[in-house]
């Protein structure tokens, strides 16, 4: 059974550098990723990353909808 999921992460204090962007891009091939935002919708499967770790390492805010 599939389930809709929406993930959004935002960097407010500082944009991600090139190394950080490369690390985040490894988590999803379909996400819309910029230096300040990561957005992905899932209609099947799940996000491979750990949202808590994403906040610790890269972003300042997180939104999750299912």
Question: Could you please describe the fold and organization of this structure?
Answer:
- This protein has 66 residues and is α+β, with helices and mostly antiparallel strands.
- Helix content is 23%, strand content 29%.
- It is built from 2 helices and 4 strands.
- The chain has helices spanning 18-25, 51-57; strands spanning 5-10, 32-33, 37-42, 61-65.
- The chain has a 4-stranded antiparallel sheet with strand order 2-3-1-4, covered by helices on one side.
- A hairpin with a 3-residue loop joins strand 2 and strand 3.
- The longest helix has 8 residues, at 18-25.
- It is globular and about 35 Å long.
- The model has no long low-confidence stretch (mean pLDDT 93).
């Amino acid at each position: 059974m599939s389930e809709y999921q929406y993930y959004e992460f935002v960097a407010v204090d500082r944009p991600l550098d090139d190394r950080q962007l490369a690390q985040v891009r490894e988590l999803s091939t379909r996400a819309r990723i910029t230096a300040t935002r990561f957005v992905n919708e899932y209609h099947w499967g799940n996000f491979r990353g750990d949202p808590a770790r994403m906040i610790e390492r890269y972003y300042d805010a997180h939104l999750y909808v299912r």
